Here is the input.
Amino acid sequence: MVICYYVGLRFSCSVASGNEAKCESFPLYTAVFSVFNSFFLGNFGPAAAALIVLSTRGQHAERKVLIRESIAWRIPAKGYFLGILIPAAILGLALAALVTVSAVPFHWYGNAFGFWIDDMIFGSLLRAYGEEMGWRGFLLPRLQARMNGLQASLLIGLIWWTWHLPVRLNPGHFQWMVNLIYLAEILSLSVILTWLRNSTPGTLVPVIILHAAINSGLDTIRMPDETWYQLRWHLYLAGAALLMAGFILTIAGKKLGEAHAPENAGHISESSRA
Here is the structure.
């Protein structure tokens, strides 16, 4: 977790517009990592943390499993279908609420579908890859060995939200409320991703696709920067994600499907208690 934050901090310092002063508080960090592309480096914090922990503990077989699962693209079509359909449903519900309930003036970024494809291929998939290796690849199986899927999802969701928080600490009226609503979004998405991970054992690709698809979808939809507009948009997003998570909980229960421990899970479980 410390590694995630330290690497992710460079990301937050680099991309948070108007917050350059935050970086000056970490001169050693800035000096060491200034030569890297910090945007991608930040998103690979969770993956770096997972691989470093497994390597330093001598769990080389488990490290190989994690890498293999993250590139296991030859999977049943169901994984790809769910990875695209679920984000489309969430964004569709949120936009429907936006149009029918509020008069928020949003627009699409250029050729929306073309931009979404480009953003997925050249950005979001790689960023989601770096995060999901840590969250659902490394952390989730270990938590599900100790608690049910819902509890593990909520704990990962809280960590995930906290990890994203530095880039969201922007000044503005009601900004704290936007971040609380964003927490509801993240917790709901964490439940959905846990269920998808459990439903497609042996691969991280479906959760990577879902994570990337929803991020690229959000990049395609342009909202005004005013906090009041952002507040309503995130409220609808959180509501749509919560509805989807509630539906999944209704059909799958609190276990969110059968947890599939990685290979050598017994060895990992024992060593992690030390």
User: Anything to note?
Assistant: Strands lie at 107-108, 221-222. DSSP finds 13 helices and two strands in the chain.
